[in-house]
Amino acid sequence: MKFSKRSFYTFVCLQVFLFFSINLGCLQAGASGRETDELALLKFKQGITSDPHGIFNSWNDSLHFCHWTGITCGRSHQRVTSLVLEGQNLFGSVSPYIGNLSFLRLINLQNNSLRGEIPQQLGKLFRLQKFFVNNNSLNGTIPLNLTRCFQLNTIYLQRNNLAGKIPEELGSLPKLEKLGLCNNHLTGEIPPSLGNLSSLTTFSATFNDLEGSIPNEMGRLKSLNSFAVGVNRLSGIIPPSLFNITSLSSLVFAANQLSGSLPDNIFFTLPNLQAFLLQRVDMGGNKFVGQVPTNLGNLQSILRLKFEFNNLGSNSSNDLLFLTSLTNCSNLQIFSITRNNFAGVLPDSVANFSTGLIRLYMGGNEITGIIPAAMENLVNLIDLQLEENLFTGFIPSQFGKLQKLQSLILSYNQLSGQIPSSIGNLTQFSRVLLSGNKLEGSIPSSIRNCQHLYAVQIAENRLSGELPEEVLGLTSLSKVLNLAFNSFTGHLPTEVGKLKNVNTLDISENNLSGEIPETIGGCLSLEYLYMQGNFFQGTIPSSLASLKGLQYLDLSRNNLSGQIPKDLQEIPYLQYLNLSFNDLEGEVPERGVFTNASALSLIGNNKLCGGVPELGLPKCPTKLLKKVKSHTLKLVVAIACVVPTLLSILIFFLIRRMRKSRTKPSVAPLEMNHLLKVSYKDLYQGTDGFSCSNLIGSGGFSSVYKGFLPQVQTPVAVKVLNLEQTGAIKSFMAECNSLGSIRHRNLVKLVTCCSSLDYKTNAFKALIFEYMGNGSLEKWLHPCAEGEDQKRSLNLLQRLNIAIDVASALHYLHDLCGKPIIHCDLKPSNVLLDDDMVAHVSDFGLAKLFSINSNLSLSQISTTRINGTVGYVAPGN
Ligand SMILES: *[C@@H]1O[C@H](CO)[C@@H](O)[C@H](O)[C@H]1NC(C)=O
Ligand SMILES: *[C@@H]1O[C@H](CO)[C@@H](O)[C@H](O)[C@H]1NC(C)=O
Ligand SMILES: *[C@@H]1O[C@H](CO)[C@@H](O)[C@H](O)[C@H]1NC(C)=O
Ligand SMILES: *[C@@H]1O[C@H](CO)[C@@H](O)[C@H](O)[C@H]1NC(C)=O
Ligand SMILES: *[C@@H]1O[C@H](CO)[C@@H](O)[C@H](O)[C@H]1NC(C)=O
Ligand SMILES: *[C@@H]1O[C@H](CO)[C@@H](O)[C@H](O)[C@H]1NC(C)=O
Ligand SMILES: *[C@@H]1O[C@H](CO)[C@@H](O)[C@H](O)[C@H]1NC(C)=O
Ligand SMILES: *[C@@H]1O[C@H](CO)[C@@H](O)[C@H](O)[C@H]1NC(C)=O
Ligand SMILES: *[C@@H]1O[C@H](CO)[C@@H](O)[C@H](O)[C@H]1NC(C)=O
Ligand SMILES: *[C@@H]1O[C@H](CO)[C@@H](O)[C@H](O)[C@H]1NC(C)=O
């Protein structure tokens, strides 16, 4: 070691200085403070259990902690000033050591999956200014000690699982500007002390369980810009002082139990100009009464104004006077007064609302008069809902000009005349609900141009003529086609089979006749089919049995004859079958829906016999010879199917005797309710938004992603079902249930299921399995040249073990798990290998899961319709 003179002197001086200094302790703290920071960061790292993006790789000895990912230090003191690890998919908890990072000014851990409590030790961070932990899974309460960080300017705690009260002490943070608490489970009242937060601009506490009234003190928040307390249990009146705040731009009170009337001077307690900033007022879903003030036109900036679901208006003719003033709100986009007590004629002035208006909701009032044709001016309208009022007159044909209209809801009014053919002009049209009016004529054939329609309801009108083929050919229909209670005549066109996506078809209570076309079996997504109260004749088409998702079927009060098709008993989820008052004959089947007399109505068919005893029908005459013949055929098929299975089971037993030790007894059945609850959000976060980089496989029916869940420490495989067929929804839950109740070391373990709505409110179904580190057997047997970095191969012992594993799984499925289950699609790509090369059978139940009553034996199973194979079939290679 070599010292320059200069550094030598510096060194000596320093020693001398230190010796005499009373600041000795302080300076040492500079060095040990850095050690404390490093230790605290390492402890923080320890608290994180999963780091899929590998950001902690850089947190190692070879690098000064100031250069670790997400860390910023002060230049001179080299102490940690900010910790920013947002949106990194981190799992784990926040270490209390974070409280030792005493120079921290910014903590940003938002959009991760952190859980556990927010440590009280944060209270030691007296320099902390911004604290973001929103969008995690943190629980416990808001730490009281956080209120000791007097420099705090932003606290974002929204989207967690925090419970308990909002601490009164938050009101003592003089610099607090933004307080985000929404989407938690907070209870108790809003503390009046928050009125002390003179810098507060944003207060959001929507989606909690807050109660009590909104404190008057909130009116003292002179800088307040956004105040959102929707979806809580708040009661009492809105403190008038709140409307005195000139800086407000957004007020959300929706879905509480607030009451009182809206004062005449509601937004204008100060003269002029003061409400200029207000863009959003949502008072929906409360108990407000009285008239709406007529000076709302002063809300120059307003974009959204919602009064829906209250008790405003007084069922009198001047209730809607305030609408005219709204024509001054030139930015209005969304306006709703749905479900109040407004009466009177809809003024023509609605046609002069802002042309920027996209949603207009006035349903569920007592509004009279005609629908003003001049509303054609509202050219940006996407959604127009005027249902459940007292409108008379015609549907204006001018609406054909509303090129952006997607949804038109006019149900339950007193509209008459024809449906204007100009609706064919509405190419974006997706939902038209006109039930419960006095509409006549037919449905205009121009409707064929509306290629995005997913719901059509024109029931309970006076429509007549034949059912237009154009409507039945609308393959886009997915939710419902309801034409019940009209006067349609003629046949049901064969085009009905094109409704492949529709969930509910209701053509009941018309005057339809002729046979029910076999093509109805093409409506593969049907769950509800209503055809009762017509004059249909001929036999019940057996093609109905191909509607595997069907739950309700009503064919009553027609002239149907012949036998009940046996195949109807194979519809797995049918829970209501009404065939009453027809002319059916012969034997009633005894399985499926026919086992449950309360789900079944057969009265008014005098020639039926047999069925389960509860039906009380006469016995059928003994069976004919030709039936025996078909039974023999089935028996042959049965034997052909069963023998290979028995053989494989036999071989299995032989092998097992050779290698007794390998198989463990199977675990007791696990009920579905004990499984984890997993939300779409969890899965979305856990798979990085279902990103391509996490995609580990896909097929026609599903895509599989690798992911992490906050509730599970190990990685999981998330199998997302491709739900283009809505009929598959019910069968999903049942499959999920069956899979949930079986467990074996050689079956891929189902962790849980998720059935929910995705962010676009589409149905979303996923199965979550254990992740298998070594991929499929297929990949090991036939490694494809490209893509595989190293050649994989299996030795003889591994191959034997895999064979035994698969055999054990089959043995369990067929014989040991209560209801026998036939895999039907066993092949190497469906055998997955875990990290220890133990084989797990997967991918069963998605398309072909057969769960049979336990009193039936395997040989009987094979007489039912099985599309796959009972035993092992390798693909042709
Ligand atoms: C430490 O982190 C640096 C920076 O990321 C990295 O290059 C290095 O490989 C890491 N060292 C170890 C031992 O992980
Ligand atoms: C994190 O969340 C915020 C709002 O909570 C959002 O604006 C931002 O885009 C998100 N960031 C990431 C990386 O997901
Ligand atoms: C830091 O924090 C932890 C836990 O809060 C504590 O046990 C530890 O002693 C503190 N001090 C230092 C110097 O690490
Ligand atoms: C929550 O975090 C996830 C994961 O980073 C992100 O994709 C999502 O957009 C965030 N949600 C919100 C509402 O900020
Ligand atoms: C918070 O979550 C952790 C695990 O994430 C759990 O152990 C603890 O009991 C929860 N605490 C509360 C108060 O719910
Ligand atoms: C929380 O604050 C109190 C004082 O209000 C203090 O006594 C306590 O030690 C703090 N807790 C932690 C864990 O820092
Ligand atoms: C804060 O508000 C509460 C209740 O409104 C009040 O009693 C208290 O004196 C205020 N504190 C300060 C420091 O202003
Ligand atoms: C609103 O402000 C005005 C003028 O400052 C004041 O006279 C009035 O009392 C305030 N109203 C409420 C309810 O605070
Ligand atoms: C509104 O008033 C009419 C009579 O003008 C009455 O028939 C109707 O029942 C009233 N509706 C409600 C909801 O009070
Ligand atoms: C159909 O839309 C066009 C605008 O694209 C409009 O000019 C025409 O008048 C509309 N026809 C009817 C019948 O409304």
UniProtKB/TrEMBL annotation:
Residues of the signal peptide: 1-33
Domain of life: Eukaryota
Residues that bind ATP: 719
Domain Protein kinase: 690-877
Name of the featured protein: Protein kinase domain-containing protein
One Pfam family from the record: LRR_1
Stated family: Belongs to the protein kinase superfamily. Ser/Thr protein kinase family.
Species for this entry: Hevea brasiliensis
Transmembrane segments: 635-655
InterPro entries associated with the record: Kinase-like_dom_sf, Leu-rich_rpt, Leu-rich_rpt_typical-subtyp, LRR_dom_sf, LRR_N_plant-typ, Plant_LRR-RLKs, Prot_kinase_dom, Protein_kinase_ATP_BS
Alphabetical UniProt keywords: ATP-binding, Glycoprotein, Kinase, Leucine-rich repeat, Membrane, Nucleotide-binding, Repeat, Signal, Transferase, Transmembrane, Transmembrane helix
Protein location: Membrane
Taxonomic lineage of the native organism: Eukaryota, Viridiplantae, Streptophyta, Embryophyta, Tracheophyta
Keyword Lyase: no
